[in-house]
Design brief:
Helix content: 25-40%
Number of strands: 19
Distance between the termini: 16 Å
Structural class: alpha/beta
Number of domains: 3
CATH superfamily of the largest domain: Adenylosuccinate Synthetase, subunit A, domain 3
CATH architecture of the largest domain: Alpha-Beta Complex
Strand order of the largest sheet: 7-5-2-9-1-10-14-18-19
Length: 431
């Protein structure tokens, strides 16, 4: 077996879906190993746009097996809806193409309600959660009162586990949030029916993904971005799982010493959805131009993304922890019409240099980025298919990034379509 990892290195929305879709031609299995349906991957294939949330991007190819790992939190209701939308576009989601780990945690109705109640109660201190129950589902997993995929197939056990989870939650719903409590029996009936639908997809309880993957090429598909990591991101403005590439081993049950490619997704500029520190955010016309040209609106929420310049300090911080072997540089075409392009190369706060991305949110909010300005290429690069054909200024921008991060750029996206991509195969073991 060989493992090939694709993870976002910024605040998410780096274009993982497109890159994973491109690389699936070279692999046997695509695995999602963390996060939930708060992630959104957009793929444009043959002129058709696909928005994926819970289902791995490999589902668009018939010869690929998609696997949802134990590190994911999974919403059966959303899965049904997403599967139906894919079917309308001619994509079948069958047990022959998709498998779910029996250890995968299930997002329950009470997780979604609790998520929304908490966010509403925060008023002016909101985190910016999608309200999809991701955090509460991970909480139950850690508290050892979570529901797993395998539990959906045993109604008696399912009811027992739901009752245990609702002891505390119903007390909060009634007394703290002044909303209706949940009925354990009704929930058990509802999710047992989901279990019947999901049964063909759920692997046996003695299933070993490591054994199943033996002799195969496995592509690990991360969700969100490294700066949203629950430990190493801009806490508390983060997601509820570990998004760094190193988590793949725990999130699916594969050994960590089989990695052949560790591809870091880097958008040619930087975006962020929701609240939290964003040192290179541009509040002026350039930020608006990036948003408009890059169509920076959330796949999952539709919220406009905050936009700004490339932040090499934050990227260096992520790369030091991740062991990235090459970079997939996405949405380079969004910079086509800029006379100059700014890149943050250093942080200062109150005149003092900051050596790395700080853990303190207070210090994060005082960051003053130091920029280098590079000349723009002022032409459309969408039809270019080789690195050599790129404008000199575009190659200089790429070279600047490579030198600062110490990692080569192996993939360059010059448009949203599958074919609008430059692949430098010399930097990828997959090819």
């Amino acid at each position: 077996m060989t493992v090939h990892i694709v993870t976002g290195t910024q605040w998410g929305d780096e274009g993982k879906g497109k890159v994973v879709d491109l690389l699936t031609e070279q692999v046997d299995i695509v695995c999602r190993y963390q996060g939930g349906n708060n992630a959104g991957h957009t793929i444009v294939a043959d002129g058709v746009k696909y928005d994926l949330h819970a289902i791995p991007s490999g589902i668009l190819r018939d010869n690929i097996i998609s696997f949802i790992g134990n590190g994911v939190v999974f919403d059966p209701e959303q899965f049904e809806s997403e599967s139906a939308k894919l079917k309308e576009k001619g994509v079948s989601v069958t047990p022959e193409k998709l498998m779910i780990s029996p250890k995968t945690s299930i997002i329950m109705d009470y997780h979604k309600v609790l998520d929304k109640c908490r966010e509403e109660a925060k008023k002016d201190n909101k985190i910016g959660t999608t309200g999809r129950g991701i955090g509460p589902a991970y909480e139950d997993k850690v508290s050892r009162i979570g529901i797993r995929a395998a539990d959906l197939l045993d109604k008696e056990l399912l009811l027992q586990k739901i009752k245990a989870a609702l002891k505390e939650k119903n007390t909060m719903f009634v007394n703290l949030y002044h909303t209706e409590p949940f009925n354990a029996e009704k929930l058990a009936d509802k999710y047992f029916e989901y279990g019947k639908i999901l049964a063909p997809y759920i692997a046996p309880t003695d299933f070993s993904f490591a054994q199943f993957s033996e002799g195969k090429k496995v592509l690990m598909e991360g969700a969100q971005g490294a700066m949203l990591d629950i430990d190493h991101g801009t806490y508390p403005f983060v997601t509820s799982s570990n998004t760094l590439s190193g988590y793949f081993s725990l999130g699916c049950g594969l050994p960590g010493n089989k990695v052949a490619d560790n591809i870091g997704l880097v958008k040619a500029y930087t975006t962020r959805v929701g609240a939290g520190p964003f040192p290179t955010e541009d509040h002026g016309s350039d930020g608006e131009k990036l948003r408009r040209t890059g169509y920076e609106f959330g796949t999952t929420t539709g919220r406009p993304r905050r936009c700004g310049w490339l932040d090499l300090v934050a990227l260096k911080y992520v790369f030091e922890m991740s062991g990235i072997t090459s970079i997939a540089l996405t949405k380079l075409d969004v910079l086509n019409d800029f006379d100059t392009i700014k890149v943050a190369v250093e942080y200062k706060s109150e005149g003092r240099k900051i050596n790395s991305f700080p853990a303190s949110i207070t210090l994060c909010e005082k960051i003053e980025p130091e920029y280098v300005e590079l000349k723009g290429w002022k032409c459309n690069i969408a039809k270019i298919r080789s690195y050599e054909e790129l404008p000199t200024e575009a190659k200089e921008y790429i070279s600047f990034i490579e030198k600062k991060l110490g990692v080569p750029v192996s993939i360059i996206s010059v448009g949203p379509g599958r074919d609008e991509t430059i692949v430098r195969k010399e930097y990828l073991s997959l090819f």
